[in-house]
Amino acid sequence: MLMGALAFMGTGYAQENNDGVYQFPNADFEGNWTYNEYKSSWGNNVTYSEYTPDSWNSFYTAVGDAAELALKLMANQTGSVKPTAGYDGKGALIFSRKNMLGTISNGNLTNGIINMGNSTASHPSNYNFSDIDNPAGCCVLAGLPDSVSVYFKFEPKDASLGNASMNMILHSEYEYKDPGLIMGSEDSLKYLVAIAKASITENKEWVRYSVPFEYNGENYKEEGKKFILASFSTNGKPGIGSDGDSLSIDHIRLIYNSRLKSLKIDGNEITGIEPGTADYVLDDDVPAIENVEAVADGIGAAVETAIEGNKLTITVKGNDFEANPENVHVYTVTFDDGTGIEGYNAENAYVTYSEDQLTVTGADGETVRVYTVQGVKIAEFTAYGRGHQIDVDGNSVCIVKVGAKVFKVVVR
User: Fold this and answer.
1) What DSSP line would sit under 163-200, residue for residue?
2) How far apart are CA 220 and CA 121, in angstroms?
3) Cα(213)–Cα(9) distance, rounded to whole angstroms?
4) Are 280 and 332 in contact, with CB atoms under 8 Å apart?
5) Residue 298 half-sphere exposure, CB side, CA atoms within 13 Å?
6) Cα separation of 220 and 226, whole Å?
7) For 334-382, how does the pLDDT look when each residue is reduced to its tens digit (9 = 90+)?
8) pTM for this one?
9) What are phi and psi of 186, to 5 degrees?
10) Contact indicator for 225, 173 with CB cutoff of 8 Å
């Protein structure tokens, strides 16, 4: 199980612009559900039925050579979907079913379309795909997400038979298939932008998974529409599992990072930058703005820098800022051009150097970290109001971070 932090709060947003949406429509399954049913051509009151949430699909809309046989002739040969009590409000529950061949048909939910090409579950002609010519079978995505957060509850009949699965594939304008075996390795890589995959273990309570997207080189820079194909299954292997395995899904969120990852000034990396720390003090001259290189932790995040007086302001906006203007973080670096040779006082820390020893005195409970200018940490400790000595070489530069304050100390 992977855990992470949300970049925003709320129920998500799926407003569409010319380039698509930033979140899955009906990501909480709180929208409309439709009851769908096929009755067997053989009679005997045999039916396939599902409650389908808007913007999502299961077997009722499946296509392919085996769909007619499984859904209309025999009718009850596949897994299905229905609403359930969610993590927050309503959720979706998919479940597996044993078919007349004695094998397992996994529960399957996708925002694409299911292709049933063969009655053997593991056959490569069985897959989910983005039907890019059908608005009800695809999702155009405007953003470049860094991760996805989903709540799951997985209740298999026999956990030893394997875990449930989630695949999310960001791809270019192509009828992308999942699994992509039938596409061939060349096309599956050519049109792949990014992928996020999770193996969901047994849990009878709601568990939040946070899964990073792995980007395929620089395909994300290519022009044109991008689509996201989501697939959830009661087992990661087709046809594996037990009759009645169930996977509950809720609260799907695409996360767009918006924090500062690293900072270079005059070509030198400022050691001690932390995404959750907003304000820094640097014992140095104010640089020219063109010599400031700030890097965000989001693949599509925007970084703005400005200098006014002795203060550098860095604004990092998430890639979804257009739809979610609260997804922004602001950092400040205050430059204090004191020499730092005899001593330096930065509110809660006093630093001196003498005879190859750096002495740091900080407020009670503050964490102190000392680095070389190359970024190698040479000391870390918690200050308790008394001086703490660190051996350093003379005629060098150290980066000292005390709490939220970072400054450079020249030792001579």
Assistant:
1) -EEEEEEEEESS--EESGGGG-HHHHHHTEEEEEEEEE
2) 33
3) 20
4) yes
5) 27
6) 9
7) 887 544 333 444 455 666 766 677 777 766 677 888 887 667 888 888 8
8) 0.81
9) -65, -50
10) yes
